[in-house]
Amino acid sequence: MVGAIAAPRSSGRLYERLFTEGFSLMRQRFGLYAVLAVACAVSAATAAGRGNLLAVFATGNPVAVFRTAPINAVMIAALIAIFFVLPTALRRLEPSFRMTFWRGVLTVAMLACLGVATDLGYAAAVIPGIVIGVLLSQALIAALLRTGEHGSLRDLFAAIGGALHGSIALTRNHFMTTLGICALSLLMLGVPFVIGLIALLVLDALDGRSLILTAPALFLLFVYCECVRYVLIVRWYGRLTNAPLREVVQAA
User: Mean pLDDT of residues grouped by 10 in the chain (252 residues)?
Assistant: First the structure.
């Protein structure tokens, strides 16, 4: 069984047992991820043999491949999975944390605010966008952990403002390290996913039926990498706030 919580411990080394713990986080919700993987396989089965995804990718508009049914299904399933990976990771800091409807609304609103803020920075120049992104990188976790399970519209604006201010306060004196953590966490997700996507395209060109296996495999790869990424992010937040972490252990 999974989900027993060990006694609190300090943040320790950021990278200790990182990939093992990512696997443990993934296992806690594996039933849900398996259902989403089956949905990806079904979508791939309906499209298998009807087109060459590698040819679509090579048309001069690589983004077009993400609009095809198999890849689109993977991306939608990945988006759904994020809303389950995040609370699972946050329970390392707060074991009683639950992703309620209110916190889901707060997550969407917080991501929208972060997107607008960083886009404005990138519109001015690349460097301001990076600076804003790093300074506000802890805002989502702060917003979710510092608010209750329910709230009002007024609470929503207060939570967003407090989280943005709190993130800046946490990261401004640790800017370069936070920048490195953010870059590494994105590489942990982006590099394996791109390699997996290329493998999917090549195998599809060789045999269209391979999509039935490679599409769910690509989704599960995304989930695992996202779990590892959030383990690192939560560990860094715990170190910034001096919060004790709870290690997920196996119950007898």
Answer: 37 78 93 96 82 74 80 93 92 89 90 84 75 91 89 87 92 93 93 93 87 94 96 92 56 30
CB atoms within 10 A of CB 2: 13
The answer to whether the CB of 67 falls within 8 A of the CB of 222 is: no
The domain spans of the chain are 2-250
| Contacts with 32 (C-beta within 8 Å, 6 or more apart), sequence order | 81, 84
